[in-house]
Amino acid sequence: NVTLSVGLLSYTFLRRTMKDDIVVPVLDFQIQDDHIVPLVYGSQGDWDSSLKIILDWSPFSSMGELLQQFKDIESHGTKVVIYDLWMNDDGLLELDFDDDDEDILLRDQAKATAGTTKIQKEIIEQHISHRLRFSLRAYTSILYLKKYANFQIILRGKVVEHINIAHDLKFKKIFTYKPQVT
């Protein structure tokens, strides 16, 4: 069966509702006869409660608007909607969408190499470990150790190139694990 899922991860929701634990309301749907129908694993009440939370705390005001989000990912995939970002002390969004057309950056983190020489700064800035701290493209490029033929991550309309981070390790050591039988 083809299934579709929607989840809400919102720090604002957790703070304003004073949740002690991380709560992620999730809605599941399945495709039946070319129609999207709710897939209820627990109780209908829990499903309805998750729908109400998602509609109250997301930019979507109806289930129809929410389901529209599936239209452009066809029969499989994941879509992340970033909504209601916070502002920093300068009144700028916490995420930077303007400095790089192909990436989403944490604002002001790229400039965190103060106090280093020019050569040190160039070396630091070229290494993936530096970009991991502020670049969503760099972070998603190393999420999987293995590259899969039928899988790709697209960020801002461009495919993220896979990087096997194990190849970038400077001080490699291989340990053979030998289980101890007692």
Automatic annotation (TrEMBL):
Coiled coil: none annotated. It holds the Pfam family Morc6_S5. Residues 134-181 form the Morc S5 domain. Keywords: DNA damage, DNA repair. The keyword DNA repair applies. One of its GO terms (molecular function) is ATP hydrolysis activity. The keyword DNA repair applies. GO terms for biological process: DNA repair. One of its GO terms (cellular component) is nucleus. PANTHER family: MORC S5 DOMAIN-CONTAINING PROTEIN, ZINC FINGER CW-TYPE COILED-COIL DOMAIN PROTEIN 3. This is Morc S5 domain-containing protein. It comes from Aegilops tauschii subsp. strangulata (Goatgrass).
